[in-house]
Every structure is written in structure tokens, then in C-alpha cells.
């Protein structure tokens, strides 16, 4: 057994143990707390297994633990667990390759660890889906965010070709966005009524709330900058940040390719902006006497 390899996986298992212990102390879900405590105990056992081949003291970067703690507060426990599980899947493949190189007692122990790691995902997903509503309503949140980004950016791009006044475009985006958020919330309410496992009211709140939040955020540059182009550029940057954020979240939660979905969403946003800008220019050409 290579000491360097053993040191790496000992540090990884020690990090996971500390992370699971912190998550167990900071989650409000009783079932998930028990699962996380069990995970922490298993990870410590895995750490002691690798430690026997390490000649020096094992440690891990504390900043990494703090970073994961911050991500947990921002995106929830489910996001962090999925992120950790992705790394553990990679570790399992290496563990399988190492099994034949170890003495028989160590082979049995490592095979047991592999089985425990494979059971982690099913256990935590079962606990989260039973008690954390955010995952069940994630589709409504993403629907609200994505529709708001495309629709409101289209409105702003249209005014880029139609008007020179950022305040006008910002107010128009808020009015359209507010009306659209009510419409989206109503549609989500009616859609959720067809599904007995979901709350119609929560579905409407998640959809309308995420839509309106995105609308307000994207309108902020138009109340900040006096130049139309600067305001539009700021709004587009915020839209791209939102797209990157929820696309990355989805890619981790549902194990989807991040790059492909991010490129697709950005392409749709770009096409919408160009078409809306062209339509605004057309309106300004057809109605030059209208002061906007």
C-alpha cells in the first residue's frame, strides 16, 4: 500500500466524518440526523483503516470544511450530500482496484467499506425525500427562475432597441414580471392539484416566489445605471449568474452534465435577447414619434 495513497484517502474519510457530524448537529430533520450520525461513525472507521498505512498525522484543509458548511447553508443538506456522494463514487472505483493488492483481512474490511459507501446514497435520499419538501418542489423553483430569466431579459432587450431610458425598461420589467409571477403561480397551483403528493399552495408559492425574486434581481441594474447599455449588461450578467447557479445545483442533485445544460440555457437566453432587441428596433422604426 502506497503511503501517499493511504494518506489521501485517510484525509478524505476524516473530512467526511467531520462534515457528517456537523451536518447532523445542524439539520432539523430527526430521521436525517440519525442517518448522518451513522455515516460519521462509518467514515471514522474508514479513516482508521487507512491510517494504519500512514506514518504521519492525518489532517485535512479546514477551509474546505468551512466552504462545505457555507454551501450547506445556501443550498441545503441535500446538495452537500449529493456533492459528497459524487466524490465517494469515484473513491469506490479506486477501492475496488485496491482490494486485490491488500492482505486477506484488509480485503474483507475494504469490501465492507465499499458496501457501506454504496448504501449511503439510498439512505440519505430516502430520509430527505420523506422530510425535506424542497426537493419535491425543486421543479417548481427551477421553472419559476428559468421562465423569469428568459422572459424578463427579453423585455429588457426589447427596450434596449426601443428606448434610451433605463428607468422605463426597469419599471416595464417589474410590471411584466409581477403579472407573470401571478400567472405562473396560478398555473403551478392548478398543476399541483393533479398530484396528490404535492401541496398546491406550496407549489404556487415556490413558483411565484422564485419568479418574482428573479424579476426584482434582474431589474436592479436599471435603477442603478443611467446608461441603457450598462444597465442591460448588468442585468445579463446577473441572469448568467442565476443560470449558472441553478444549473450547477441541478447537475449535483440529479447527476446531470453541467456544461451541456448551462450552454443550452445560455443559448436560449442569447437568442431571446437578440430577437427581442430586433423587435424593439422594429417598433422604434415604425413609431418614431412615440417618446419612451
Q: What's the total number of strands?
A: 0
Number of domains: 2
Q: Gyration radius, to the nearest Å?
A: 25 Å
Which segments are poorly predicted (pLDDT under 50) over 5 or more consecutive residues? none
SSE pattern: HHHHHHHHHHH
Structure description:
The chain has eleven helices and no strands. The chain has two domains: 3-130, Up-down Bundle (Ferritin), CATH 1.20.1260; 137-286, no CATH class. It is an all-alpha fold. The protein has helices at 3-26, 30-51, 62-75, 77-98, 104-131, 133-136, 138-162, 166-192, 200-219, 228-253, 258-286. The mean pLDDT is 81. The termini are far apart.
Pick out its properties:
292 residues, mainly alpha, Ferritin, 2 domains, 11 helices, 0% strand, elongated
Describe the structure concisely.
This protein has 292 residues and is mostly helical.
Topology record:
Layout: H1 3-26, H2 30-51, H3 62-75, H4 77-98, H5 104-131, H6 133-136, H7 138-162, H8 166-192, H9 200-219, H10 228-253, H11 258-286
Helix pairs in contact: 1-2, 1-3, 2-5, 3-4, 4-5, 7-8, 7-9, 7-10, 7-11, 8-9, 9-10, 10-11
